[in-house]
């Protein structure tokens, strides 16, 4: 009889560390803690009020002063990162090299070079890396994605993407190119570019033409300013046309306009927000002049990407080559939008 290696036993409870527990970090922490077999082992957060707020829902956690102390904890299985964008790549690499799985806010890096370095670290450590591309996990976009993948609206030849945020970010680092990597495209557009590429199976993009503005004036340099309005036209090798328009502080007549519309040879489909909401979405299918509503609110989706990541870590999932390639391809498109 040939002896076989016993399959690694599924871990019963994850021990997780959280770096950054502002509003988004706390939201993801609570979603993961409340919906998976996990506990909040430690938190690194420089703002006292944020740390105190996080402890209200994770009383078992300990507050520690440095990421190096957190990463030295051999009991930790994974790290959740919700810090300013400039820190994402370095913190992710350090966590992966310490043998931890990583769930990071978008963007994973400010440039494609940074993203490649993180993905390489995930590969070398053979640890799961995920990014909070949260709209993928809404019920409304899941319906659109299945519609497209099942061929129900035929071959997709055009995609219109719109994300207007009437307010813009309230943190000053978003407006600093060195710390953010870019303006509204990096903050908002990246979500919709990911949705379009994912739905189209990441075709090679042959042409990118972008027009970027700051307070109504066309940007020619990113040394001191980032764009607050962008209009981008992309073409794939399969002749898919992808148009993106996104902004901060635009007069949109509502809090937000968020849409991804797909036009196919048999029909159309749209993922769109409801009444200007940042949180409520619906999915519609179009055949000629007829509209079929596929999904309507409510849908508690905001922490779902983190829950999926944590469950995958519990299942002992490791480096995911396909996801890594997708992170890199999206980052390369973002670089081309910025002309770098």
Strand order of the largest sheet: 9-8-10-11-7-12-13-14-15
How much strand content do the residues show?
25-35%
Distance between the termini: 60 Å
Structural class: alpha/beta
> How many extended strands?
15
**How many helices?**
10
Give the helix proportion (percent range). Answer: 25-40%
Question: What is the N-to-C order of secondary-structure elements (H for helix, E for strand)?
Answer: EHEHEHEHEHEHEHHEEEEEEEEHH
Biggest sheet statistics: 9 strands, mixed
Average predicted local confidence, pLDDT? 95
The value of Rg in angstroms is: 20 Å
SSE topology:
Elements: E1 14-19, H1 23-35, E2 38-44, H2 48-57, E3 62-63, H3 67-71, E4 78-81, H4 85-97, E5 101-104, H5 112-125, E6 129-131, H6 139-149, E7 156-165, H7 177-180, H8 184-199, E8 205-214, E9 217-218, E10 229-236, E11 241-248, E12 256-264, E13 268-273, E14 281-287, E15 290-295, H9 304-314, H10 321-337
Parallel strand pairs: 1-2, 1-4, 2-3, 4-5, 5-6, 7-11
Antiparallel strand pairs: 7-12, 8-9, 8-10, 10-11, 12-13, 13-14, 14-15
Helix pairs in contact: 1-2, 1-9, 4-5, 5-10, 8-10
């Amino acid at each position: 009889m040939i002896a076989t290696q016993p399959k690694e036993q599924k871990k019963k409870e994850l021990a997780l560390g959280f770096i950054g527990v502002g509003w988004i970090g706390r939201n993801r922490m609570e979603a993961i803690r409340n919906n998976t077999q996990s506990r909040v082992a430690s938190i690194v957060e420089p703002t006292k009020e944020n740390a105190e707020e996080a402890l209200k829902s994770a009383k078992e956690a300990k507050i520690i002063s440095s990421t190096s102390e957190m990463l030295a904890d051999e009991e930790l299985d994974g790290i959740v990162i919700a810090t300013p964008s400039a820190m994402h790549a370095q913190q992710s690499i350090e966590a992966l090299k310490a043998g931890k799985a990583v769930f990071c806010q978008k963007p994973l890096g400010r440039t494609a070079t940074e993203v490649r370095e993180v993905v390489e670290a995930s590969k070398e450590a053979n640890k799961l890396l995920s990014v909070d591309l949260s709209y993928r996990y809404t019920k409304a976009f899941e319906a659109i994605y299945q519609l497209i993948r099942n061929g129900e609206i035929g071959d997709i030849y055009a995609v219109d993407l719109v994300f207007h945020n009437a307010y813009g970010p309230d943190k000053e680092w978003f407006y600093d190119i060195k710390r953010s990597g870019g303006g509204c495209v990096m903050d908002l557009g990246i979500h919709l570019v990911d949705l379009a590429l994912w739905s189209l199976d990441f075709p090679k993009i042959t042409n990118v033409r972008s027009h970027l503005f700051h307070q109504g004036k066309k940007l020619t340099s990113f040394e001191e300013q980032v764009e607050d309005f962008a209009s981008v036209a992309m073409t794939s090798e399969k002749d898919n046309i992808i148009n993106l328009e996104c902004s901060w502080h635009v007069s949109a007549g509502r809090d937000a306009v968020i849409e991804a519309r797909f036009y196919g040879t048999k029909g159309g489909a749209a993922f769109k927000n409801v009444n200007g909401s940042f949180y409520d979405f619906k999915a519609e299918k179009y055949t000629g002049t007829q509209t079929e509503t596929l999904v309507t609110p409510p849908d508690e989706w905001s922490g779902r990407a983190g829950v999926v990541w944590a469950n995958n870590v519990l299942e002992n999932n490791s480096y995911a080559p396909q996801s890594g390639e997708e992170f890199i391809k999206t980052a390369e498109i973002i670089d081309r939008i910025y002309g770098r």
